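During the second half of the funding period, the structural biology subgroup turned its attention to how the target accommodates small molecules. The most pressing case was adenosine-5'-diphosphate, which had performed well in the primary screen but for which no bound structure existed. We therefore specified the complex as follows and requested a full 3D prediction, including the ligand pose.
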Amino acid sequence: MRPDAADLPALRCAGLTKRYGNTVAVDHVDLEVPRGSLTALLGPSGCGKTTVLRLVAGLLDPDAGVIEIDGHVVTGPGVAVAPERRNVGMVFQDYALFPHLNVARNVAYGLRHLPRSERPARVASALSLVGLETLGQRLPTELSGGQQQRVALARALAPGPDLILLDEPFSNLDASLRATVREEVRTILRAAEQTAVFVTHDQEEALSLADLVAVMDQGRIHQVATPQTLYTQPATRFVAEFVGEADVLPGSRAGRYLVDTPIGRLPTDRALRAGEVTVVVRPESLGLRPAEDGPGVVTALSYFGHDQLVTVEVEGGYRLRSRRGPGLDLARGDRVRLEVAGPVVAFDRHGDHADEAAPAPDRPPSSSEDVHA
Ligand SMILES: Nc1ncnc2c1ncn2[C@@H]1O[C@H](COP(=O)(O)OP(=O)(O)O)[C@@H](O)[C@H]1O
Ligand SMILES: [Mg+2]
């Protein structure tokens, strides 16, 4: 680390762009990863997550943009620091362990730059960090998936990198193992005070593990925020629908903080620009009450014990889900009244936040409009 680097982000990408023919795999990505944080890069398959990691690791050259690690430019105009000189550790999706080398020698592989005499102590300390100190002589095939994962992590940690990059680190594990291994990996990274970026398409994984989540779609980053902010203040409709459960309704502005929707007039979280919007309703914020003259009809009900998910259809064919406690007071076909707790988030037709502060991309607000309606 540079002596004056304490306040600098561990990783900074600016305007990072990578094209494959006509595909823009990574499109002007700006990202700052604070030192010591666990940051998730979250997005659907094919959105460019692996490409970002490979660019940061130096395994790929971008078409444009700058990458700084600990304040040093490693990629930029006229600069392309070799991968092995970036001080970045990588854990690949398939772990990429050498099958013919035992665990200790796999871990030692990342230490080839060190004098031979220093390597055993570093291997032992990395293996102890991941709780595999007794398994150094085993071959990768003699380990469970979770243990192989920890060997890959030990190999990446052993050289003491500034940054570790993990590509879909949990996707090869059985669902039954995944939650435990996630927690283990988080504990190990925290114990090592290791800055790490992990890629995932699983929103639950990103929300539950990361300090910061960068949501990506079609090569672009939509929002970088804490899990709580992403969930409660999604910046775009894509984020709202990709992160957590969300149902959408059309709406039209009825006042600065009011929107008319098929389920009535609702308050919004921010002052609205004029016009037609889409509002997002989360299942846990939708309350239902049995009412013979209610505007909704229960069309489906999934009972989970600790809670239940009830689907309601309202006029116009719009469907909304409500997550409710275990008490069973509704059945299919029942009529209900709907009540949304708290304000809703509204998006414009481009999927951007429809608040007053955001610039309308191609439609300036009309000056004759009564903004205090
Ligand atoms: N070597 C390559 N050649 C051509 N297209 C590629 C290559 N690698 C990735 N792509 C394309 O770039 C886009 C992003 O890919 P990737 O970064 O692997 O996405 P993710 O990891 O989010 O699933 C996809 O459309 C993919 O098909
Ligand atoms: Mg990928």
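Two results from this model are relevant to the next phase. The first strand starts at residue 11 and ends at 20. The two ends are 55 Å apart (CA to CA).
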